[in-house]
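Hey Z.,

So I finally got round to the magnesium ion thing we talked about over coffee. Here's the setup:
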Amino acid sequence: MSFKGFFITGTDTEVGKTLVAGAIILKLQSMGIKTIGFKPVVAGMRQIDGNMVNEDVETLLMVSREISPNLIASDICPYFLKDPAAPHIVALQYGLELSLHKMMAHYDRLAEKSDAVIVEGAGGFLVPINEELTLGDFAQQLNLPVILVIDIKLGCINHALLTAEAITRRGLVLHGWVANSTQLDLTYTSENLNTLRNILKKQFNADFLGHIPHISEISTNGIYTIEILTITTSYFQLYV
Ligand SMILES: Nc1ncnc2c1ncn2[C@@H]1O[C@H](COP(=O)(O)OP(=O)(O)OP(=O)(O)O)[C@@H](O)[C@H]1O
Ligand SMILES: [Mg+2]
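And the result:
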């Protein structure tokens, strides 16, 4: 099978990449594809039940364990940075340099253990790894088809087009995009969706996969439940 997974990026940080990545992993698993999540770097750890954890990794680990129960957090993420800030800045504070090579090696190990890996970027598409490289370069090396998560709010069309341009300039396929309403009651939601749908298809050949409405049951602690992720799967389609 040539399908190896997706790279999930977003128009910004906090737009719903983890929600979509978790739901995609569940959806692929339900199609019989052994799928694991991967996060190249996290910045921001919290203490939960006496352990320092990152919410994204906890969510991706929880769904990945549905098919690989022995996975641990460090299997799916090579860099855990404590402070919630731009990863390369936090890394430097701790005397660390982020390495694209290390991210790739870590990803390769996971890819060997699974049919597909869903890679969630950190922040937006061009978050720096250092002063020369960005996570866009990591995505380019992975060469996975990209899914763009767009938080439907004022300014999202511009952010979506900038991101789509950066993705396709790197020779990557923008497989599709998912609209996510992190906020309630945005005016002109359907007009925004129509515009995005038309432009992203015409200019980037990217398909609209679906719209996740505002889900009030999502807890604000940042870790998604299997129930929420399962509900989320019903709002978008996926073809591989
Ligand atoms: N459809 C939704 N309905 C309600 N709240 C949502 C929805 N999608 C996301 N959220 C809220 O927005 C926050 C950010 O979502 P999420 O963590 O999935 O974004 P992200 O893009 O992965 O962020 P990061 O850049 O930190 O990785 C979540 O904590 C959640 O509370
Ligand atoms: Mg996330």
